[in-house]
Design goal:
This protein has strands at about 5, 10-15, 20-25, 35-40, 45-50, 60, 70-75, 80-85, 90-100, 110, 115-120. It is an all-beta fold. A hairpin with a 6-residue loop joins strand 4 (about 35-40) and strand 5 (about 45-50). About 35% of the residues are buried.
Length: about 120
């Protein structure tokens, strides 16, 4: 019903920047709220950020606040995660998810992408 494909991951030095993209298909994109999550080896998947269907409401995890910015371009059915001042602890597989129109960090997301690896080296 909804397919999500992430891209933009890679190997980055600490202090560097990276922009992740997630392209959605299968359902009207502008009705979906979206989220980014990440999972490091041996750890549970954690919330990173969410954005509302109109792009006007965002939430961020404390660990990324001020460094990461989530945005969306409904004309391109794409959501982004701009990551600046990257740290080694940001290393994880990053997942894009789709859910209710105005999601919060504790919302249920029904659709998930396959993930993209982000590795931050020291």
């Amino acid at each position: 019903q909804v397919q999500l494909v992430e891209s933009g991951g890679g190997l980055v030095q600490a202090g560097g920047s990276l922009r992740l993209s997630c392209v959605a298909s299968g359902r009207a994109f502008d009705t979906l709220g979206l989220g980014w999550f990440r999972q490091a080896p041996g750890e549970e998947r954690k919330f990173v950020a969410t954005i509302s269907w109109s792009g006007d409401i965002t939430y961020y995890a404390d660990s990324v606040l001020g460094r990461f910015t989530m945005s969306r371009d409904n004309a391109k059915n794409t959501v982004y995660l701009q990551m600046n001042s990257l740290k080694s602890e940001d290393t994880a597989v990053y997942y894009c998810a789709a859910g209710p129109p105005r999601p919060r960090p504790d919302s249920s997301f029904a659709y998930w992408g396959q993930g993209t690896q982000v590795t931050v080296s020291s």
